[in-house]
Fold:
Amino acid sequence: MITIMYPTRNRPLKLARSIDSIFTPRPPENPIEIVVVCDGDRYTAMKAMNDDRISRVVYLRDHSGSVYARNLISQTTEGDLICAVDDITFEADAIDAAAATMEDRYPDHDGVVGFRRADRDHTKMNKTTGMYGGVALIGQKFMRRYPNRKICFPGYFLFAAQEITNLAVKLGKGTVSEGARIFHHSPRKGGGMDQTHVEGREYRKRDRDLRKARASHGLIWGFDFEGQNYDLIMGTRQEETDKFLRRRGKS
Structure:
């Protein structure tokens, strides 16, 4: 079973477009479940409940960010593989191609398989493996490295995927499926600016500064927790993260 999870907020049309792409021109051969987490978005939750393709809808009354939403689902899913996405669209057979690469390279599901972005020249991908961290298929065994299977460091708000890629590279457990292609509909390329993109501009620097601060300490979420600073490793509240950044002169 492949769990495809969508943290979403006030973008029902983009959510529908992405889900449509999974089944176009044909549904995946692998069994899938689609889980939608509506982050402070009751309207989309109500619409999603009427979509028979969606297996589960989770409504969060308070807006908590996509990192919180991803961790919420990764802790509870029993799928062999999990994929967290947002407003991207899948090209034909992308999910099956990624799953085939996982079975070929990591048959015990102890690995991460990245998707290729059809809209990018790949210059911003990880220079070691060519992996793009934003969308990846993560094996259940790989997820067990994380505390309570929370795949993202809880201190981030929106941008946490890079540490998943970094851990996969460090452990030699990451690769890319050349046949698994996606398209990211960025505002600069006609994707349309929405509330999530506005928030992205607000939180990008904060999350980037936190990532740099953690990297300067040699920290990667899911790797070597012993003896590390609590605020860096397990801090889950906004004030804890901001306090750490202030100590380092980052905010």
User: Anything to note?
Assistant: The CA atoms of residues 21 and 74 lie 23 Å apart. Residues 2-191 form a domain with the Spore Coat Polysaccharide Biosynthesis Protein SpsA; Chain A fold (CATH 3.90.550.10).
